[in-house]
Amino acid sequence: MTILIAAATDLEMQAFGADRDAVAYVLRLITGIGPMETALSLTSMLHQYSGQISAVVNFGIAGAYPDSPAQLLDICIAKQEILGDLGICLPERIERFAERGLAVRDSFILDDRLRKAAAQALRHIGITFLQGNFVTVSSSSGTTERAQQIGRQYQGLCENMEGAAVAMVCEAFHLPCVELRCISNRAGERDRKNWRLREACLRTGQTAAAVTEFLLTD
Ligand SMILES: O=C(O)c1cccc(C(=O)CC[C@H]2O[C@@H](n3cnc4c(=O)[nH]cnc43)[C@H](O)[C@@H]2O)c1
């Protein structure tokens, strides 16, 4: 079994560690930031390794929505990924294209079996976690009001910029995918001194490594 691990940036990937025992069974992809780059880079990687990859572990950092139970440095697993800013940006909410009768894929349920296996791995190593809706945006929420609005509209646990793209591409390639993230900031919070970027990168990488090892030996 070969697992592809995917993260948006080198900082997140570094924390996965280079000296893992099962490294021969792990391929790595730094997708780049945002859904477009992610969709492109992942599609081209899966094409290149056609038939050789059995599952994708997507990990990284995320912002917790103001009404979310997730706190700084919490680990979260995605049940569903939603393209949160795809639609019409009204003052109070994003109007979805489906409301206008247009068929646009804008939400993706992540693989149940792999998600449960990842949850089992986390319990096994004693890491507490939350599960729920993740929201992917092209524009990171820049105010608490915006973050609250998007978070409430989708009952979102946290916000990121790649997850829905990974879920969509994996679905197209019939590959199971699991996504886990560590909370680095409150979505909408602009004051960088309240962010925990480096610690969150470290924690998400280490957690993803432990989960991947568990999946490979399961
Ligand atoms: O505003 C800044 O100065 C700034 C500096 C470094 C990084 C950022 C990011 O927004 C990182 C985006 C990156 O991390 C994920 N992420 C983390 N928190 C959030 C968030 O609140 N909203 C959306 N994405 C977030 C995301 O997946 C990207 O890969 C800003």
From TrEMBL:
UniProt entry tagged with the keyword Cell inner membrane: no
Catalytic activity: futalosine + H2O = dehypoxanthine futalosine + hypoxanthine
GO cellular component: cytosol
GO molecular function: adenosylhomocysteine nucleosidase activity; methylthioadenosine nucleosidase activity
UniProt key word ATP-binding: no
Enzyme class label: hydrolase
Metabolic or biological pathway, per its Swiss-Prot or TrEMBL entry: Quinol/quinone metabolism; menaquinone biosynthesis
Nucleoside phosphorylase domain residues: 31-199
EC number(s) per entry: 3.2.2.26
Source organism, top-level taxon: Bacteria
Keyword terms of this UniProt record: Glycosidase, Hydrolase, Menaquinone biosynthesis
Biological process according to GO: L-methionine salvage from S-adenosylmethionine; menaquinone biosynthetic process; nucleoside metabolic process
Family to which the UniProt record says this protein belongs: Belongs to the PNP/UDP phosphorylase family. Futalosine hydrolase subfamily.
Entries under PANTHER family matching the protein: 5'-METHYLTHIOADENOSINE/S-ADENOSYLHOMOCYSTEINE NUCLEOSIDASE, FUTALOSINE HYDROLASE
Biological role: Catalyzes the hydrolysis of futalosine (FL) to dehypoxanthine futalosine (DHFL) and hypoxanthine, a step in the biosynthesis of menaquinone (MK, vitamin K2).
The name this protein goes by in its record: Futalosine hydrolase
Upper taxonomic lineage: Bacteria, Pseudomonadati, Thermodesulfobacteriota, Desulfobulbia, Desulfobulbales
